[in-house]
C-alpha cells in the first residue's frame, strides 16, 4: 500500500471508531481515577482528531502547534500562573513583556496586549477606537464576523463597504471616515485578500491581520506595506505563529490608548488592561517558539506554506477539470471543479477544505496553514474527489 493510501486507510479506521468511547452520560458519583481518565480521554483526544500536520491536509486557518510550544504550554498549565498578578508570575510577566518587545516594533507599534484570540484582539482594539472618539465601524463586506460583532457589542454603527473583483475593500466606496474606525483586513478569511493598507485619514485605523500578520517576518513583508500606519493591529498567534489555541495579540500605536482600556482596583498591583481579567502565560510558548526557531525558522515555515499554496494553485489552474479563482495572496486558495458540483467536492474533501461564496458562486476553499503538507498528496486527494 502506498504512503498516502495507508494514510487514508488509517483515517477510515479512526472514523470507524468515532463515537465508540464509552463515557457516563451523567456526572459520575465515583471517579475512575486520574490514570484511567487520562488513558481513556487522552487516547480519544489524540486518535479521534483531524491531524493538522498530515501531508494531505490543507483545511482551515489552523496550523499544527509547534512542538516546542505544545511542550511549553504543558508547563504553563502545570504552573498555572495568572498574569493579572505580576508578583505571583514574575518570570511569565517578564517573558510576556520580552516577546512583545520582539514583535511590536516590527509593526511600528508602541505596545501590545495578549488576548485569547483575534475576536478579542479586534474587540479590544475597537474599544480603544471608541474611547478615542470613533462612532462607527467601517469594514469590507469580506471582513471577519468578529468586526460587526465588536461593533454590536460596543454600540457602534456598522458600515459594510463592497469589495472589488480581487476581494479588497473598494476605497472608492468608503463613506466619510472623520468619526469612523476603519478596519482593513490583511488576509481575509474567505480568500486571503489583503486590503490596500496605504495611509488614509480616519478617526482610527485598525488592521485585522489575524491571519497574514506574521508575513511581516518573511520575504512576503512588502505585501503588508502600510501596516505601520495603523492605530491598532490584531494578530492571531494561534495561526501563523504556530501556537496552541488561545493566543493572539492586539498592538497599538499610541501609548496613551492603554489608559483608555485599563481598569484598576485596590486589590490589583497594576491596572488590568483589555477585556480579559485572569490571563494565562500564553506568551511563554510563543517565546519558546521564537527562541527555538529564530526569525529565520519562523519565516521558513510560513514561506513553505505559501509555496505549497502557490504550487497547488498552479496545478489547479493548469488542470482542465478545475478552475482557480485567483492566485493565492496569503496562502488561501479558492477553486472549483468545472464538471462537478463544488459543494459535493467540499463534502468529499471533508477535513481538508471548506467553502466560500464569491459573488453568489460557491468555491472550494483551502488554507495553507500546514507547513508539512505535500502537494502530491494534496493533489491525489483532490483527484480522487474529482473522480
Ligand atoms: C481575518 C480574521 N479575523 C479575525 C478572526 C478571529 O480570530 P479568532 O478565531 O482567533 O477569534 C479570524 C479567524 O479566522 C480571521 O480569519
TrEMBL record:
Keyword Lyase recorded: yes
Superkingdom of the organism of origin: Bacteria
GO cellular component, one term: membrane
SUPFAM superfamilies: PLP-dependent transferases
Gene3D superfamilies: Aspartate Aminotransferase, domain 1 (3.90.1150.10), Type I PLP-dependent aspartate aminotransferase-like (Major domain) (3.40.640.10)
Record flagged with keyword Lyase: yes
Keywords, in A-Z order: Lyase, Pyridoxal phosphate
One GO molecular-function entry: pyridoxal phosphate binding
Pfam family, one: Pyridoxal_deC
InterPro entries per the UniProt record, alphabetical: GrpII_AminoAcid_Decarb (IPR050477), PyrdxlP-dep_de-COase (IPR002129), PyrdxlP-dep_Trfase (IPR015424), PyrdxlP-dep_Trfase_major (IPR015421), PyrdxlP-dep_Trfase_small (IPR015422)
One BP term from GO: sphingolipid catabolic process
Modified residues (N6-(pyridoxal phosphate)lysine): 239
Cofactor list: pyridoxal 5'-phosphate
Family per record: Belongs to the group II decarboxylase family. Sphingosine-1-phosphate lyase subfamily.
Name of this chain's protein: Pyridoxal-dependent decarboxylase
Lineage of the species this protein comes from: Bacteria, Pseudomonadati, Pseudomonadota, Alphaproteobacteria, Sphingomonadales
